[in-house]
Design brief:
This protein has about 80 residues and is mainly α. It is about 90% helix and about 0% strand. It has three helices and no strands. Helix 1 runs antiparallel to helix 2. The two termini are about 30 Å apart.
Length: about 80
């Protein structure tokens, strides 16, 4: 499963099982990005991996905000 599947499933259903999938996919991608950074020697390639890391961090921030909004919305109902 990829992160977007987990976040989408949670936001649509409110079922926290999707958050478990999201967290596992998130950790797996973070690990792979770090592995790429360690094994990449070319400066241009390192710059691309850094940009990938930044984009992923932005995705995580937006996803975390959406999760918090869904939790607050469900508790308010």
């Amino acid at each position: 499963m990829i992160e977007s599947d987990g976040i989408r499933g949670y936001l649509l259903s409110g079922d926290s099982i999707y958050l478990t999938d999201y967290d596992m996919a998130r950790k797996r991608l973070n690990q792979r990005i770090e592995e790429l950074m360690k094994t990449t020697v070319d400066n241009d390639a390192k710059q691309i991996v850094t940009e990938l890391r930044n984009l992923h961090t932005n995705f995580e921030d937006i996803s975390d905000s959406a999760i918090k909004f869904k939790i607050a919305n469900n508790e308010a109902s």
